[in-house]
Amino acid sequence: MTSSQRIELVCPAGSLPALKTAIDHGADCVYLGFKDATNARNFTGLNFDPAQMREGIAYAHARRRKVLLALNTYPQTANWAGWTAAVDRAAEFGIDAVILADPGLMAYAAKTHPQLRLHLSVQGSATSYEAINFYHERFGIQRAVLPRVLSMAQVEQVVGRTPVEIEVFGFGGLCVMVEGRCALSAYATGESPNCNGACSPGKHVRWEQTPQGMETRLNGILIDRFGEHERAGYPTLCKGRFEVNDETYYAIEEPTSLNTLEMLPELARVGVAAIKIEGRQRSPAYVAQVTKVWRAALDRVAVDPAGFHALPAWMAELNKVSEGQSHTLGAYYRPWK
Amino acid sequence: MKLSLGPLLYYWPRQSVLDFYAEIADSPVDIVHLGETVCSRRHELRLDDWIEVAAMLADAGKEAVLSSQSLIESESDLKTLRRVVGQQRFRVEANDMAAVRLLAEAGRRDWIAGPTLNVFNPHTLGLLVEAGASRWVVAPEMSGAALAEVRSTLPAPIETEVFAYGRLPLAHSARCFTARHYNLQKDGCEFRCLGIADGLVLRTREGEPFLTLNGVQTQSAKVHTLLGDLSALDGRAEVLRISPQGAHTRDIIERFRAALDGRQTPAEALAASSAHMPAAPCNGFWHGRPGVEQFVPA
User: Fold this and answer.
1) ipTM for the predicted complex
2) Which one of B170, B219, B220 would you mutate to disrupt binding with A, by most A Cβ within 10 Å of its Cβ?
3) Taking the model in full, what pTM does it have?
4) What is the pLDDT of residue A196?
């Protein structure tokens, strides 16, 4: 990968309308999942049944765009066949790549469908070229998605030492923990991103108006409490307010979104192959708005990297759909750490 | 059943660490994991120091293992990892696929697949065995039933180690939450976690202990203990891991040994250990429930 190549824009498709919207607004690829625990966004009302997936792939391919399938949870002994069946179905449907985390499943895919392109999911927790090259040598992965923990210099180091294309998160919900290495949700609710494809799942959420304010709980655990003029947020457990040494604050992370738009020239320079927009759980309207801005920005950076700057109008558009209407550069920006 | 001592997850002053392992040398533990697995900024002991401690413990009849760092971010992290893998005397616990690659490349056939490798099915475990793993440390979030299923479908048995005691290591981040608590950046953290023997307790706004901040690692506040579940471990594990805590680690080791040797019932051992535990017990993960729960089967 050299910086003269175009960076691909990879957009979320939680539903068929979202997929069409993403394609119509300039996504190069969309990523999606089946309606079950094989993907890490296993939420009610989200994702694709086989008929919708066929239709979505046809829609994208007719416009020469790509569809990637996330099969990025870790299968257990008892449900193994469900995951291999999902790989088989994806291959049969003519998917452009599957995004996998489990090495066992990767071995299955590489052996059974040698023509199927494999991407390493962010859930694979590969943060170094040594780890990424392991998956490349063993299973022939062609792309890896980096967890949101590396600084820009560290991203550059990885890109330069692997033949595998590197995809990074550009915008959307900020996972503060290394994906694939976080069992906080499992600890609180018994359901985990790794195995069940869900973090802080909705069925364990409770909102309750109390004399102290609006309380949000996850499986009974108080995640936050909001005053009269505060907007009560979803109880994602790492974005709650807690007490440490008698001080109450967002001890892990504020509710905020990742937005790396202003780093685009740097991401292009170091040779990142693709930028992922997070948000399969968000509406088609969100997908439209975010895709439009990122398409414009990527087109601009491709022709004039030196003159590129993030337009205030773009940032304003993105802030409208950001968590808490605020954004951060996350770990790409070293002082965040 | 063998007892193992997991890597020290906290940052203690150098002398405290050396004193601790001197005390462990004559404790009834069979395996001791050494090295810095949490944060590359922690340097009270360097790799050569850990190797010296390992040699001391090996002389005392323990199996010493060097555990690799869980989260690899920089070239210098990889450099340390290469040195860990490069030494021949001690077995290595691989806590990241980077370590797996280097160990396999070096042709080592004796390494340990650590708890952060996300092994949830026999196919993935089989691949690691093929790459040279000869012991498997189960991810703490895996239930006893799921573990039994993996083992029952393996073509050949592999020595299996279960996290049996300690605050659960639940998550790793690029961000240091201890530095954040003191309004410091990670690069200028002033080593504030040094000497916080058991991490910082994070409570809900109702004052309920929920998590523990340990630098870039987040742990449970409650102490996971399988002392009450020992009978269910039979046939599912050959090694039980005890994670070092700020005080009384040796007492906890003795409790496990007494219960395993039949000198105490598991229930007695659990009750006796409660005085030495820094927080309430939990065991939910083992029972396929939220990890925070303390579950007593009917």
Assistant:
1) 0.97
2) B170
3) 0.96
4) 86
